[in-house]
Structures are given as C-alpha cells and as structure tokens.
Amino acid sequence: MENLDKPLTRNIRPDRGFATLADYENTGGYQGLRKAVTELQPKEVQQWVKDSGLRGRGGAGFGTGLKWSLVPMGDADSDNPHQIRYVIVNADEMEPGTFKDRLLMEKDPHQLIEGIIITAYAVQSHIAYIFLRGEYHLSARRLETALQEARAKGYLGEHILNSEFNLEIHLHTSAGRYICGEETALINALEGKRANPRAKPPHPVVSGLWGRPTVINNVETLCNVPHIINYGVQWYKELGLSAATGTKLFGASGRVKRPGLWELPMGTPIRDILEEHAGGMQDGYKLRGFLPGGASTDFLLPEHLDVAADFDAVAKVGSRLGTGTMIILDDKTCPVQMVLNLEEFFAQESCGWCTPCRDGLPWTVTLLRDIIKGRGRMEDLDTLAGLVRMMGPGNTFCALAPGAMEPLQSALKYFREDFERYIVGNKTLLEAG
C-alpha cells in the first residue's frame, strides 16, 4: 500500500476535488472499521488506541485512548443511565491561524466518518454528532454526501457490516462563535442553550450531552483512528520520531515563501517545517518569532527552531504545540500590533460567562490600544502583566482567557522593548512639545 508514511493525506491529490467512497475504499478505506466490528471487542479497540500513543490533535494533547477508557460502559440491557452514550466531533475550527481540519473534511470526508464509527463502536455509542464550524460550507456539503454514501453502503445505520452494532451520525452546523470550540460550551450549544462553558468536574466523559457520557474528539484526532486499527499499533508508533507517535498536520502562515499544510512525523524539528516545507522566509524578511500552534500559544524565537514539534518538547521551552499550525512574526511586523489584533479577537469572542474573561480581555485591549496610540505609561506594562496572572489557568471557567494571555505574556517577555518604544517615544514627543 502506497503512502503508508502519510496516512492522513494519502487520498488528497491536486488533480481531484475530493476522495469519493470508491477512492477511499481503493486505498484500504473502511477496512479498519471492518476489522474493529468483526475481530475486536470495544475494549480492545480502546486499548489499541491507548497503546498507540495517539494524543488529541485539537490543541490539548490529551491521550485519546485514555479519554475513551474513562467512559462508563454500562450494560445496554440494564436500567443503567450510562447505557446511552454519545460521540461528538469537534469540527468548530475557529482558532486564528488554524485550517488543518478543513483540509481533511473537504478533501477526504470518509476518513473522518470511518474514524467516528470506530470511536462510537469502541465506547458503544449509537448516536454521533459532527459539530461543524458554520462558515465551512464546502465541508458541510461534502460530509453530507459522504454520509449518504456510507449509509447506502451499509457502513452506517442498523447492523453495520452485518454486526449487532448500530450508529447514526448527524451533521450539526454551528451558529458560529469561537467559544463553541470549548467542549462544554459546544455541548450547551448542541443542546440548544447559550454557548457558555460548564464547570468541571463532572467531565463530559461522565456527564456530557443531556447528562450522558460523551466522548468529544477533534477532527484530525479521529482521522488517525482507522489507520491505527487497520495497520496496527507498532506501525503507528514507528511513524513518529523519538517518543512521539504518528503523524501530524503541521502548517505555517505569514511571510514564508510557501504557506500551507504538510503531514509530517510527530517530532519533526520546527526548523524543517519552516525552512524545508514552508520554503523559509520571503525575500527581504527575517524571522523574529512565531506562535507554534495557533493564536493561543506563547511566542517562541529563532533560537527555538531546533525544538521537536511534539507536545512535550514544545512545552519544555515555554509554549504549546497546540494545533501545530505556526503563525510567523517577521522583522517588519510590530509584535505589539500583532498581539493587539489577537486580543481584539479573543475579547470579541468571549462569552462573558466569568468575570476575569468578560472584563479582563476588554481592559487588555484598551491598554494595548492606548500604548499604540501614544497614550501609554510604563505602569501599563505592569497592569498587563497583572491581567496575565488574573486570567491565568484555574481562574476562569474555560481556557479561552488563559489561551488569550499566552501570546501577550510571551510578547511582554521577548519583545518588551517594542512596548516601551511606544511609551518612551510618546514621552519624548510630549517633552519636545
């Protein structure tokens, strides 16, 4: 079988719009599902995924198989309320700088559908939802087509592949807010409520959609599952470099020569992604820094280019791998204005459910605007640092505000002179006047 080193993108080709059911089956599609439901018990599927080392590709990097194993597996013939379980696909891809899930849904929708079915089998769920970003119209059309094809072929519905397993998948188009990407806010939105996050615990795997155990996984995460079951745990582990397992869609946007996405081994050096695959910086520009995993990650510097692109290695140098899609800061872009642009987005997308996020993000935006417009004071930098602490992990209902603070706190650390230049420059002008 060709392209076994790039399982996620092997069906994605420039000479066709997207992979049809026939295209997908011709490269081994739905063989993982066939193997799961005819040869493996649900707990065995969970263990395979756990042993593979697959970690969530949505940003948090939590162990996928471990998450599944936390789902209460009650007897379907008893009065146990846990007998009803749900699977939800988080396809609400609204992180600035991130566009990997869109590629997978638009170009190879059956890969996601097979991953959903295997996941549902593993936790014995009979209803699954794809919670899709509202602006992804092409993804919606192609997923609907693929769902219809899968039903017609017997991969969905009653007695899948002549087994006792039944599953229906529903496509739900989001109303469109960044907060819906937070799993408990997503659940509220799916229930028809306002998209506010819930306090945890209980976690969704115990009490999620309509109070039932619910597994929520990212699109890219689930696209790995069919290949793990089809080709085995050891094969998947060997795809990665060092301790990291599998492959990952890495991306780069900004002033690079070839912005885009590439499927590479987990643990690929960041330098290789930027210089080899993205083509390096555009002529006349130099790299000053980068956000390694979307807008809600800490800046790293050129000195970090040889860090491996995996969850643990990036965390050790003070940032997060996040979604694996780098946003490049060049030497002709002001980091203060770049951070302001991001903070304006996060402030707009706050649901307002908790005070630090509701009040702290607009305050952050006001201070940054004042600094850029020449009204800033040196003590404003201390106030910004205080806001970073106030909206840090553990002080808010969800990760929106802590994530929003990551680019700010690292910009204050690495680019403080840029902030001070606005303030000192304004003071000089006032004295001259």
Automatic annotation (TrEMBL):
Signal peptide: none annotated. The keyword Iron applies. InterPro entries: NADH-UbQ_OxRdtase_51kDa_CS, NADH-UbQ_OxRdtase_suF, Nuo51_FMN-bd, Nuo51_FMN-bd_sf, Nuop51_4Fe4S-bd, Nuop51_4Fe4S-bd_sf, Soluble_ligand-bd. The keyword Metal-binding applies. Belongs to the complex I 51 kDa subunit family. It comes from the Bacteria. This is NADH-quinone oxidoreductase subunit F. The gene is nuoF. It comes from Candidatus Methylobacter favarea. It holds the Pfam family Complex1_51K. Its cofactor is [4Fe-4S] cluster; FMN. NDH-1 shuttles electrons from NADH, via FMN and iron-sulfur (Fe-S) centers, to quinones in the respiratory chain. Keywords: 4Fe-4S, Flavoprotein, FMN, Iron, Iron-sulfur, Metal-binding, NAD, Quinone, Translocase.
